[in-house]
Amino acid sequence: MRTVQIFLATIAAAALLCVQAWAQEGGRTRINVDEGHLNPMPIAVVDFIAAAPPASQVGRDVAQVVRANLERSSLFRSVAPAAFIERIQAMDVPPRFPDWRIIDAQALVVGQVTTLPDGRVRIEFKLYDIFAEQFLTGFSYSTTPDNWRRIAHRISDQIYEQLTGERGYFDTRIVFVSESGPRTRRIKRLMIMDQDGANPFFLTSPDAMVLTPRFSPSTQLITYMSYETGAPRVFLYNLETNRREVLGDFPGMTFAPRFAPDGGGVVFTLDMNGNAEIFAMDLRSRQRRRLTNHPAIDTSPSYSPDGAQIVFNSDRGGSPQLYVMAADGSGQRRVSFGDGRYSTPVWSPRGDLIAFTRQGGGRFAIGVMRPDGSGERILTESYLDEAPTWSPNGRVIMFFREGRGEGPRIWSVDLTGRNLRQLPTQTEASDPAWSPLLP
Amino acid sequence: MRSGWIVPLLVSLIGHIGAVMMTKMAWQSSMEITIPARGSVVPVEIVNIGEESNVRALAEETPEDAAPEEQQQTQEAAPEPAPGPPARERPRNRNDEFDLAAAARLANADTKTGRERNQGALAERNQRGAGLGTAEVAALRDRVNAVGRAHLRRCWRMPIDLPDPDRLVVTVEFDLNRNGSLNGQPRVTSPRNYTFDPYMRAAAEAALRAVRQCDPFPFPDDAVLREHYDAWRSPEIVFSPRF
Prior knowledge:
The complex is a heterodimer. The radius of gyration of chain A is 27 Å and the shape is globular. In chain A, 43% of the residues are buried. Chain A has helices spanning 2-25, 53-72, 97-101, 148-164; strands at 29-33, 41-45, 49-50, 76-78, 107-115, 121-129, 134-143, 173-180, 187-194, 201-202, 210-215, 221-226, 233-238, 243-246, 253-259, 265-272, 275-282, 288-290, 298-303, 309-314, 321-326, 333-334, 341-347, 354-360, 363-369, 377-382, 384-390, 396-402, 409-414, 421-422, 428-434. In chain A, the strands form 7 sheets. In chain A, strands 2, 3, 4, 5, 6 and 7 form a 6-stranded mixed β-sheet that branches. Chain A is an alpha+beta fold. The longest helix of chain A has 24 residues, at 2-25. Chain B is built from 8 helices and 3 strands; from the N terminus they run H-H-H-H-H-H-E-E-H-H-E. Chain B starts with a helix and ends with a strand. Chain B is flat and about 70 Å long. By secondary structure, chain B is mostly helical. The model of chain B is unreliable at 26-104 and 106-132 (pLDDT under 50). At the A-B interface, helix 1, strand 1 and helix 4 of A face helix 1, helix 6, helix 7, helix 8 and strand 3 of B. Strand 1 (29-33) of chain A pairs parallel with strand 3 (235-239) of chain B.
């Protein structure tokens, strides 16, 4: 009996304590914040430290490329080095956070370049959160001194991923059609460069005209259309082996090729006797399969990132509009219903949107819509904007823009429709295609 | 004979240990419910209950140029106070005299009419249950909300460029010193686990960054809130991105 009493007393005491704890913790005043800003995050990138002259030049160059990459994304603003208070002397010593806070930097990148005995360089960096006074991430890379640019891009990607939560897109390349010469004898060659315009070089000779290059979303393989053999043919170009081959010898014209997400297959258009239909081909077995069967023109197919669906362009409804079907060709349905003519659909690598070109009222626009056709937004519009291609993280779209009497140039715009920029190219340039992140 | 006192001692020991454990558990469970239900009463050290209803004061001091929404709220809160316990007879103290009209104006500057209506209705309900002071508590809470929102707006970079921004709602709680500065680190209380959700992680970090960047908070600069430290010493911020 006494035991029961004691027990009851203990339980009562415990319950009392419970209530007290609850009362102490329960009264937080809630503040609802649903409005913020979209300003870029101020970030300070210090010139990477180095002991001797060749390495110190690399240190300055790497920091400069990182700053330029981050700024170009429009998500960051590089704090001018002239404003820095603390002079970073060593990588191992934590920075004086208040010194960076006072110049309004929210993140800080410090780095170091060391020449190794075998002539290579080691480039390392550390990223700090100034307000949390925390080390966030850091990596070290070893490479030949002339490869510093790629390391700078990789560092930019690491910083971008850490601070935005999205995959980066700086260590990537753009393949495009370089255009030169008069209108009547236009020379169109395949060219490739880093995403920031550095390291450009030609992939094909000036003899044969090329069109519509496309990158594989997962490998360093390019597909494009060329008149090299007389009639237009779809080619494959392996950037790692530098080998080129014709996709297949079909009756009629093949064009508008695009890779399957795993890089193991290609969808393209085959025009037989004036009727364009979409076909898929497995690159290993070289088996081809017809996906559309309609007297109208069906073209410009593009896979969803999971490979389950294909968006394409068809004029079966009277004017060119966008349609979505399953990867086996079943369940074809129209998704675009706005004014104008829709073409060149491209499924975002993120899967959430489809980019397209819309033509109407004598102007061309680049826009995005959800895969069901809802939420259509125009990002940019001009006399001629065409051929969108997604960054591998699905945040930026590159396209080409041509003015009245002006040759084409490559531009980029981000998903919010802001941050419209022209890419530096030596020649006039069209039809860009963005690579996946380099291996 | 000896076992005669050992058994109760053991029971007592187990009971005490049990009690301590249960307080721990209680603490944990209280963490679960740190998000107060809408309109639940925020404990304020001094809840003043004067002879005249604060609610009436609010109605009388409503400026003529106030929005219709505001008037509606005042009407909702205006009914005669129910007879209360003797504690109500306490004399007024200086906390009664804060500018309720200003507080109401600030509260109504908030454009979320749905929430406003909720709080108006709840203030009425609480008035019956817990006494007149809850109207003041609601006004204070709205004032904290208004000052906090305006301050955090400058520090929060909305993650609306991430996919499905509507789902990226993050709740952060933290404690403030009397001078408005952060006491310890802000904590994400919702979502519970976002380690493997990079977009949610980015949203959570943006929320934490906003709180740290907004440190110190301007609550002590506000003439009314300065006197009501308990109303803002432990805020909970809900960041919800809107396109």
